[in-house]
Design goal:
single chain; 154 residues; mainly alpha; 39% helix
Length: 154
């Protein structure tokens, strides 16, 4: 009996395992990786508990390795250059819209310590949070270096 099927990932013919009647991917490593990737994407879209668990696991991983991306960028200059170029392109495309950036340029007159209400500047901007009341405590004058388009700052 010829029950060969075409792999969804690579398109080659394969014989499914008898105990997996709906098998759609061949057993090649790349195809199995693709199967798991698709499963995870679907699960992230449809299962809020799974999505929350993944977010917590990633946050714990980042907390254990706070310098990972800084070291990665330092040892992979091609990645850093590509990222910088792509960020410059994104900034150029949205030059008319405000960009929410934690390293924003300092104002001409620094803010005094106090309570402020933050609101969205423009509906089309990147910051999408509702208005928030915040307390700003100025610790030092903003005399830092020129802000760059990528994450080169240490």
């Amino acid at each position: 009996m010829n029950n060969a099927r075409r792999c969804v990932a690579c398109g080659s013919l394969f014989h499914p395992f008898s105990h997996i009647p709906d098998q759609r991917f061949c057993s090649a490593l790349g195809c199995q990786r693709e199967r798991r990737r698709r499963w995870q994407q679907q699960r992230l879209r449809s299962d809020p508990d799974y999505r929350d668990n993944q977010a917590r696991a990633q946050a714990k991983w980042r907390a254990r390795r706070p310098d990972y991306w800084r070291q990665y960028r330092a040892t992979h200059p091609a990645y850093r250059e590509r990222n910088c170029a792509m960020q410059r392109e994104r900034n150029a495309r949205r030059s008319s819209s405000p960009v929410a950036n934690m390293d924003a340029s300092p104002p001409l007159h620094p803010l005094a310590s106090g309570f402020y209400i933050l609101r969205r500047a423009v509906e089309t901007g990147i910051a999408k949070m509702n208005a928030c009341t915040v307390h700003i405590a100025v610790l030092s004058a903003p005399n830092g270096p020129r802000i760059r388009d990528c994450k080169e700052m240490t």
